[in-house]
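Researcher: We plan to redesign the surface later, but first we want a full-length starting point. Tokens attached.
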């Protein structure tokens, strides 16, 4: 019997001995590169070295091992093409029926903070992707495996049918091209960043499947959650779920919004979110104080919402949280007693996010029909802004605290956005209105009596003085807004008329 050939060259050696044993027992001649050959021989599997086939040693520190016509001819020949077969014979090349290759660990290398550029470059696999792509192109005749999870199925089919069926070979080939494309995308991103190119001529991003979701924004929409290959600390994609039902599409979006806002605060803070807008934000000496403030901010909307903390949730906070219906609680950690309290609710999702204090710096990508919008995230903070006070009256210390809180929150509310706040919590949130005065009216109505003495934050400038007038009539005493309207003077005059202290930040925080 003519022996069939299987080529195995893997960096990740997991499961390879079992796979190679299976192939060998089925009569395959296993051919391998240096390290793989050694590992298989140690396990007692007969192996032919690739160098014995190519008649060429591995050179340049392994940069050239399998890049040889004796290998690539065997991968690319069409078995039903007489000319191909004749040429193989002429050049003494044997066809290869099974290819098992996984690549140098480029992702793992660049994930290590201390990895040098030289190390990263050495971990760019060249021969591996070449073999994978060749075999995948020729999948009509070659079964190509790159994922150890596929070893079992390939062996099963070879054992039961003596071959891998066409459908499986096509599926494996598609997987290979996804894998090599993702691999190259990571390399391209790494080198593009090193070269400092901001918006290259094409965008090669890659994401890995994290979860299939039960449905999307609505039950009739199919959905999945993909994550970046290398995790960014503090992101929802890196969150660990300790308890509760699986996260839904809307949960993930809301949790993301809550996390982005809680990161604005260094003092203990609690953020309640509904439909991606903060409905109550509180700060205090402790997580409990902060939560009580957030709850007080809007004890109606928080129902069925998400609460994010930037401090550990302790048992006292957990007991308070337990009293209301929430979908998700996110915190850096939960004390054991707190967990015991919160886990009484079967469905309540508890997430921890390992925020190590770094800013999330990756670009924002938003899909529109037929394209993708790409921009930097809005990382501008109050401390970065050039603050001016154009009114006669300067804010008092208490007003400054309220203005800062309102300004941090309004950045995370859908535009047009108005937030009313005191020094400890929001008291009114007007989100996503088509005109500014509309957003102001909603915030003022929600605040009711609490508007008196509160501060107002606006995500963009006032095109006219009507919002200042509405604020004054509600008893608001301080306003923070970007400024920059051609009619700023009208707003300043109106503020002076009512003794309001108004602050300009010079920075707009639209959010759509
Ligand atoms: N250059 C080549 O000809 C080449 N051929 C195979 N490789 C890679 O070498 C690795 C296996 O090496 P080893 O069997 O020596 O442990 C695999 O990840 C494979 O993708 C190569 N490496 C790199 O580019």
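Model: Full-length starting sequence:
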């Amino acid at each position: 019997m003519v022996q069939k050939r299987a080529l195995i060259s893997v960096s990740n050696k997991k499961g390879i001995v079992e796979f190679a044993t299976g192939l060998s027992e089925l009569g395959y001649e296993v051919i391998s590169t240096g390290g793989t050959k050694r590992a298989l021989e140690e396990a007692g599997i007969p192996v032919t070295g690739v160098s014995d086939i190519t008649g060429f040693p591995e050179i340049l520190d392994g940069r050239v091992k399998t890049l040889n016509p004796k290998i690539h001819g065997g991968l690319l020949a069409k078995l039903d093409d007489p000319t191909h077969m004749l040429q193989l014979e002429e050049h003494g090349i044997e066809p290869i029926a099974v290819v098992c290759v996984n690549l140098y660990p480029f992702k793992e290398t660049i994930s290590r903070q201390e990895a040098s550029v030289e190390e990263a470059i050495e971990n760019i696999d060249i021969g591996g992707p070449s073999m994978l792509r060749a075999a995948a192109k020729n999948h009509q005749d070659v079964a190509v495996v790159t994922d150890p999870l596929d070893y079992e199925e390939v062996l099963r089919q070879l054992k039961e049918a003596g071959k891998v069926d066409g459908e499986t070979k096509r599926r494996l080939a598609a997987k290979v091209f996804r894998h090599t494309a993702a691999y190259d995308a990571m390399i391209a991103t790494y080198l593009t960043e090193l070269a400092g190119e901001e918006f290259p001529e094409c965008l090669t991003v890659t994401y890995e499947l994290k979860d299939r979701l039960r449905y999307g924004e609505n039950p009739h929409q199919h959905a999945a959650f993909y994550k970046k290959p290398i995790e960014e600390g503090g992101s929802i994609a890196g969150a660990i779920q300790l308890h509760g039902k699986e996260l839904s599409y809307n949960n993930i979006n809301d949790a993301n919004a809550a996390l982005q806002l809680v990161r604005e605060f260094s003092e203990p803070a609690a953020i309640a979110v509904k439909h991606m807008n903060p409905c109550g934000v509180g700060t205090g000496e402790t997580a409990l104080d902060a939560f009580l403030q957030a709850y007080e901010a809007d004890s109606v909307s928080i129902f069925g919402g998400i609460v994010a903390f930037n401090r550990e949730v302790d048992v006292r906070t957990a007991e308070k949280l337990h009293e209301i219906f929430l979908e998700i609680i996110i915190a850096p950690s939960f004390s054991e007693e707190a967990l015991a309290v919160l886990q009484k609710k079967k469905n309540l999702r508890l997430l921890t996010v390992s925020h190590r204090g770094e800013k999330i710096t990756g670009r924002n990508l938003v899909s529109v029909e037929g394209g993708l919008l790409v921009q930097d995230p809005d990382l501008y903070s109050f401390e970065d802004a050039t603050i001016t006070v154009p009114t006669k009256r300067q804010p008092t210390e208490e007003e400054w605290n309220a203005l800062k809180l309102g300004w941090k929150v309004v950045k995370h509310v859908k535009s047009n956005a108005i937030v009313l706040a005191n020094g400890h919590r929001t008291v009114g949130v007007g989100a996503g209105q088509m005109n500014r005065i509309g957003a102001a009216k909603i915030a003022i109505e929600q605040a009711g009596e609490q508007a008196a003495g509160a501060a107002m934050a606006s995500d963009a400038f006032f095109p006219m003085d009507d919002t200042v007038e509405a604020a004054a009539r509600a008893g608001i005493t301080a306003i923070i807004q970007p400024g920059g309207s051609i009619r700023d003077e009208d707003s300043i005059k109106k503020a002076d008329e009512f003794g309001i202290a108004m602050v300009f930040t010079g920075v707009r925080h639209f959010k759509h």
